[in-house]
Design brief:
Radius of gyration: 22 Å
Shape: globular
Distance between the termini: 57 Å
CATH architecture of the domain at 33-117: Orthogonal Bundle
Number of helices: 5
Largest sheet: none
Helix content: 55-70%
CATH class of the domain at 33-117: Mainly Alpha
CATH topology of the domain at 33-117: 10k-s Protein, Hypothetical Protein A, Chain A
Strand content: under 5%
Length: about 130
């Protein structure tokens, strides 16, 4: 086993210490409703795409839950050919109309927005509603 020479180890340790001390503090690892609305309402295409991808992630997660037979607490049924940008617009409009949701995690607000815009048909005891995937 080779030992690290002192002259090599000291600069590395100093560099590592400086890196750790100069690092910016970690930010929250989630997107708030305000964050999402800011992305959706942006004039920069990269931000709008970020908004649409976030909405798509929530939709994909919802569909995964549905495919496993798990009934989500907030359910929505999207039209078969709904473009993603229209779903994102529905979410942005919902967030604008419900500013009290802004400081909270955006994912539940996305589900509530889509449920409001695209509710599932009420199912009868013998007939379960059909969910459309994108």
């Amino acid at each position: 086993m080779k030992s690290v020479r002192f002259p090599t180890a000291v600069p590395f340790c100093l560099w590592l210490a400086c890196l750790c001390l100069s690092a910016t503090p970690a930010t929250a690892a989630y997107v708030t409703g305000n964050d999402l609305l800011r992305e959706c309402a942006s004039h920069k295409s990269v931000n709008v795409e970020s908004c649409m991808h976030y909405v798509a992630g929530v939709i994909d997660y919802q569909f995964m839950l549905q495919s496993l037979g798990t009934e989500p607490a907030v359910d929505f049924c999207l039209p078969r050919q709904l473009p993603l940008d229209k779903a994102a617009v529905a979410v942005a409009v919902y967030l604008e109309k419900n500013p009290q949701l802004g400081p909270f995690i955006a994912a539940p607000s996305v589900a509530m927005a889509l449920s409001s815009a695209y509710p599932c048909a009420r199912s009868t005891p013998h007939k379960k509603h059909h969910r459309h995937h994108r």
